[in-house]
Every structure is written in structure tokens, then in C-alpha cells.
Design brief:
11 helices, alpha/beta, hydrolase activity, Epox_hydrolase-like, AB_hydrolase_fold, Rossmann fold, globular, two-stranded antiparallel ribbon, eight-stranded mixed sheet
């Protein structure tokens, strides 16, 4: 059973943090288990990390955060979706939940938030896992593609089965049927009077993306002092050459890749994802 913990983020925004398993137990009252903060990507939610969080709970206190505008966290006006706000929200979660020094695990946009936090507040972070997030600028064309993609969604969907089919098969961005992708998007829909719609505001998602898509983030990457693992799906959005350059730029970078996996690799290839990150966690998470 998931347990919600309320966190007060930047500007007083109410954030929902989640534990998906009981923390590990110890007979030593002075012993504390390493904290892990899991940060989803754009349009994601904390529950996308449920499988990873349950696996981690054997030896860690693993908490996943619904970031602002996502999941059950507040959805403030568009001016609130700055990079600084996302980072300060994550800082608030680490501090208010007593996770420091934490291992940060971020997917896509959540990975950018994680490495910006690690660069800004290194005392809060013992290790970092970056999953399928590029450090290079993507540019205006990419942002236009995303705006057009949102417009193509046939909302409202009549049923969750329609959500799964569209995102898993019919979406023009799908090269081949991908049931896991359909399930991923079904998890970010809620039932409204006229059908199923996303729990987030697409305009707010575009605003969030706008704050990082035009800029490169190599300089911040170079300022991350903790051990860092860069993980990519072979069929994901982060190419091998760029991932290896990210490892080179990081002061203590390491590299891993998952075969037969795309951008959503922790969600659709959980066992392979665990195998890729477990050796790193064994070294930095104790």
C-alpha cells in the first residue's frame, strides 16, 4: 500500500511524496538506512517508480516525489514552472523527509533536476543516477514537435483501453506496438465527466520543458562531485556518444546501457534496469 507524505515545496506549493513499501527495519535504534529520492520525468508521476521503490526498500528508505504540476501535487500557474522551482522542491523533499545524504535517481527531466541539485547542494547527495536524459540543447524544433504532439491527442479518451491502445499503438511517435508505453500513459489519466484526460495540464508541461529545452547543461554536469551513473536504453533518446561524453565530463562518472529498452526503461524493462544500477547502488548506497 502506498503511503503519502506531504512536502512543502518552493513558494509553498504542496507536493505529494510516496513510499511504496515499508522502510527496512533494524534492531539498532541508532542505525539509519540510506535515503533515495526518485524523480520522474515530464508528464510522469511517482507511481511510475513503484517497482523500483519496492525493490530498493530492502536496504534503503526509498521515496518517490510527484513533482509540481504532476500526479497529486499542486498545479500552480505557469510562471511557477522554473528550473529553480523544481530543484528547490527536490531539496525540500530531501531535507523535510530526512533523506540526506541521499542517492538521487532521476528519469529524463527528473534526472536534470537531480544533477542540478547535486551541483548546487552537494552536501545533500551521496550518489546520482541519470536515466536517459541529454545534456545538450534540443532547440525550438523539438519544442514545436512536442506542442504539435499534444494537439494530436484524441482527448477525451472514452476508456482506459483507448488510452492504452492510442499511446501503445496508434500514436504517430510509436514505431512499433509498445504495451508498456500504453500502460505508462494510462497511469497519468483520470476520469472526468466527458471521459479520460491527463492529470496534468499540457500547457504547463510545455512551459516546464521550455525552461530547459533551449539550453545545454554540460556546465552543471561538470559541477556534480558525487559518483554518478549515466544509464541509457539502447533505443532511447540519449545516444551512446552523448552518454559517454556526459560520463567524461562528470568528475566521477560511470556508464551503463540496457539492451532492448527505450526511453521508459525503468518502467518497461524493470529487471534489466535493476541489473544495470544495482552494482552502483551497492557501492554508493551504504
Amino acid at each position: 500500500m502506498a503511503r503519502r507524505i506531504d512536502v512543502t515545496g518552493a513558494g509553498g506549493v504542496d507536493l505529494a511524496a510516496w513510499e511504496f513499501a515499508d522502510p527496512p527495519k533494524t534492531e539498532d535504534p541508532g542505525h539509519s538506512f540510506p535515503g533515495v529520492l526518485l524523480l520522474h520525468g515530464l508528464m510522469g508521476r511517482a507511481s511510475h517508480w513503484a517497482s523500483t521503490a519496492r525493490w530498493l526498500a530492502g536496504r534503503h528508505r526509498a521515496v518517490a516525489l510527484d513533482q509540481r504540476g504532476h500526479g497529486q501535487s499542486d498545479k500552480p500557474p505557469q510562471a511557477a514552472y522554473t528550473r529553480e522551482a523544481y530543484v528547490e522542491d527536490a531539496v525540500a523533499a530531501v531535507e523535510q523527509l530526512g533523506l540526506a545524504p541521499a542517492v538521487l535517481i532521476g528519469h529524463a527531466m527528473g534526472a536534470l533536476t537531480a544533477w542540478q541539485l547535486a551541483a548546487k547542494r552537494p552536501e545533500l547527495v551521496r550518489g546520482l543516477i541519470i536515466c536517459d536524459m541529454r545534456a545538450s540543447a534540443l532547440g525550438a524544433a523539438s519544442q514545436r514537435e512536442w506542442a504539435d504532439w499534444f494537439k494530436s491527442w484524441p482527448v477525451p479518451f472514452a476508456t482506459l483501453a483507448d488510452v492504452r491502445k492510442w499511446f501503445g499503438e496508434d500514436d504517430p511517435w510509436v514505431e512499433r506496438p509498445n504495451p508498456a508505453r500504453g500502460e505508462f500513459y494510462a497511469e497519468v489519466m483520470h476520469e472526468c465527466a466527458d471521459g479520460w484526460r491527463p492529470v496534468f495540464d499540457p500547457d504547463q508541461m510545455l512551459k516546464s520543458r521550455e525552461t530547459w529545452v533551449y539550453d545545454a547543461h554540460w556546465e552543471e554536469l561538470a559541477q556534480v562531485p558525487c559518483p554518478t551513473l549515466v544509464v541509457r536504453g539502447v533505443d532511447g533518446e540519449l545516444g551512446r556518444a552523448e552518454a559517454q561524453e556526459m560520463v567524461r565530463v562528470l568528475p566521477r562518472g560511470e556508464y551503463a546501457e540496457v539492451a532492448d529498452a527505450g526511453h521508459l526503461l525503468p518502467y518497461d524493462r524493470p529487471e534489466a534496469w535493476r541489473a544495470a544500477v544495482e552494482p552502483f547502488l551497492d557501492r554508493v548506497g551504504e
